[in-house]
């Protein structure tokens, strides 16, 4: 009985298996591959170190297949040393149209817009608590114009303008 107990303790002390480490390494390389397709603005929006940013920019310059493959290994290695690779992956998911994160943020902005049009300044105040960097005056102006469109039963695009502004603010607040 003690031999089984000692074997169980020894297995726990070994840490992750070599296969598990390789799977994690390949997963981070895939994240790095996805990062290569980002624009400079999208890359700036991600919480990455200067070292990783420089590696991504450098990889865009490399054209030879083997050199690119080796550099992708380097990007994966740099990703392993990042503070929060999960946050980077969530940020990447937000850029992909159709991803769960993108859809969730889209619906969140829609709900804020609908509530603001229906309830007015009270909800704008709640949104300011949620996203303190928002320009209150501009937001209230957009809400007022969108409410006016609803009251007059016109569609001049004010609700769409409000939605776009809210979408940017929601993305900023969720980063």
Automatic annotation (TrEMBL):
InterPro entries: DarP, DarP_sf. One of its GO terms (cellular component) is cytosol. Keywords: Cytoplasm, Ribosome biogenesis, RNA-binding, rRNA-binding. Member of a network of 50S ribosomal subunit biogenesis factors which assembles along the 30S-50S interface, preventing incorrect 23S rRNA structures from forming. Promotes peptidyl transferase center (PTC) maturation. Belongs to the DarP family. PANTHER family: UPF0307 PROTEIN YJGA. This is Dual-action ribosomal maturation protein DarP. It comes from Marinobacter persicus.
């Amino acid at each position: 009985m003690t031999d089984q107990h000692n074997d169980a303790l020894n297995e726990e002390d070994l840490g992750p298996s070599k296969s598990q480490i390789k799977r994690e390494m390949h997963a981070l390389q895939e994240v790095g591959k996805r990062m290569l397709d980002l624009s400079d603005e999208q890359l700036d929006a991600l919480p990455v170190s200067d070292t990783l940013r420089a590696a991504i920019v450098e990889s865009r310059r490399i054209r030879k297949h083997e050199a690119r493959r080796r550099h992708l290994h380097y990007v994966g290695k740099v990703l392993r040393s990042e503070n929060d690779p999960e946050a980077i992956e969530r940020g990447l998911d937000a850029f992909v149209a159709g991803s769960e994160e993108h859809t969730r943020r889209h619906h969140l902005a829609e709900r804020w817009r609908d509530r603001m049009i229906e309830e007015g300044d009270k909800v704008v105040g709640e949104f300011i608590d949620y996203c303190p960097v928002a320009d209150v005056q501009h937001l209230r102006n957009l809400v007022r114009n969108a409410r006016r469109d609803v009251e007059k039963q016109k569609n001049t695009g004010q609700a769409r303008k409000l939605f776009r502004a809210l979408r940017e603010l929601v993305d900023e607040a969720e980063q």
